[in-house]
UniProtKB/TrEMBL annotation:
Pfam families: Aminotran_1_2
GO molecular function (one): transaminase activity
Known cofactor(s): pyridoxal 5'-phosphate
Annotated signal sequence range: none
Protein name: Methionine aminotransferase
Keywords on record: Aminotransferase, Pyridoxal phosphate, Transferase
Domain Aminotransferase class I/classII large: 24-372
InterPro entries assigned: Aminotransferase_I/II_large (IPR004839), Kynurenine-oxoglutarate_AT (IPR051326), PyrdxlP-dep_Trfase (IPR015424), PyrdxlP-dep_Trfase_major (IPR015421), PyrdxlP-dep_Trfase_small (IPR015422)
Length: 375
């Protein structure tokens, strides 16, 4: 009998496969198509001949841990202890899986805000726990009254994604204030804050759980070098958590992965000396603004994009089709692949919205926009 009977091929795989079959421009899956920074590839070339190809310490390459601590303090004013509060993971997804496996027990409940990325539910189910899906408002703000109503004495964790995939929305201080009130009433509740797009925000600086002094002792914060440094295939992320939570997380990590790719950790450690996270934000803001400007003459209605490298668009003025069918026809008839937002909801809620990834070179965005303006 399957432990995950309702898990099927992901919509990301389906749409990317269709894009390849029809030779369409793939704006569905969230990965950049432009070259990695030459500074980073030169670092890899230089260190490849060094003695860095064996196991590193379970928690991570010590100099990289120091760089993460320094980056966190600079970005959020949080001082963390490298030996006990940081764990390098084989991508953010592994970090999320490990944290849930370590902290959630059988018959616990975990609050997940819909629409939600697809890696949250499976590890909850594998714990024999119950995911409680709470829909966001239609403008993708959080309905904190609904969240509070969904909580109970069984609630062990709430998962928050900020900046939010797929919608590009971000949290504000009022959101954290509401979250604190709920967690104060449930002293055993833990926050899992998925912040993989933390350095890809635009008009507003990212507001991290790392900066919330009343939450940090009960929070596990997930970050991704893959997203921040445009190296998704390296699968390098990290967790920050207080020691009493990290002790339990490391117990799972040591048997799931033990230690993470050595050369990637060493290369990133060197690269953090020469890269600026401010430049990362600026480059993606240019791409967002270019893509939005190119679609101004289209029939798509663009929703606000405060962070991530995703643009959500309404096609309600174009078609009455379901968003899944619309995305399939968009590939077949117009040569552009997108992701239907209904796939991020437990109940398949269809608001006639699709998600485009703008982490592409300008030529790709221009070519895609020309096709989309003809829809």
């Amino acid at each position: 009998m399957s432990k995950l009977p309702n898990v099927t091929t992901s919509i990301f795989t389906v749409m990317s496969k269709m894009a390849a079959e029809y030779n369409a421009i793939n704006l569905s899956q969230g990965f950049p198509n432009f070259p990695v920074d030459e500074k980073l590839t030169n670092i890899v070339k230089k260190i490849a001949t060094e003695n860095i190809h064996q196991y590193l310490p379970m928690t991570g390459y010590p100099p990289l841990l120091d760089k993460i601590a320094a980056l966190t303090q600079k970005s959020y004013g949080r001082k963390i202890t490298t030996e006990t509060e940081i764990l390098v993971t084989a991508g953010a997804t592994q970090g999320i899986f490990t944290a849930i496996q370590a902290m959630v027990n059988s018959n616990d409940e975990v609050i997940i805000l819909d629409p939600s990325y697809d890696c949250y539910v499976a590890p909850v189910l594998l714990c024999n726990a119950t995911p409680i899906r709470v829909p966001l408002n239609d403008d993708y703000t959080i309905n904190w009254k609904s969240v509070e109503s969904a909580c109970s004495n069984k609630t062990k964790m709430i998962i928050v994604n900020n900046p939010h995939n797929p919608t590009g929305s971000t949290l504000h201080q009022d959101d954290f204030n509401s979250l604190v009130k709920i967690m104060d009433a449930l002293p055993d509740m833990i926050l899992l804050s998925d912040e993989v797009y933390e350095y890809i925000t635009f008009e507003q600086n990212h507001l991290s759980a790392n900066s919330q002094h009343t939450l940090v002792n009960r929070a596990i914060v997930v970050s991704s070098f893959g997203k921040s440094l445009h190296i998704t295939g390296w699968k390098i992320g990290y967790l920050i958590a207080p020691e009493h939570l990290m002790i339990e997380i490391k117990k799972v990590h040591q048997y799931l992965v033990f230690s993470v790719n050595s050369i990637c950790q060493v290369a990133i450690s060197h690269y953090l000396d020469v890269v600026s996270v401010e430049n990362i934000r600026e480059s993606y803001q240019q791409k967002r603004d270019l893509f939005r400007s190119l679609l101004q003459s289209s029939r798509f209605e663009l929703l606000p994009c405060q962070g991530t490298y995703f643009q959500v668009a309404s096609y309600a003025k174009i078609s009455d089709q379901s968003d899944v069918e619309f995305c399939k026809q968009l590939v077949i008839k117009h040569g552009v692949a997108a992701i239907p937002i209904s796939s991020f909801y437990e109940n398949g809620k269809d608001l006639k919205l699709v998600r485009f990834c703008f982490a592409k070179d300008d030529e790709t965005l221009i070519a895609a926009a020309e096709k989309l303006c003809q829809v």
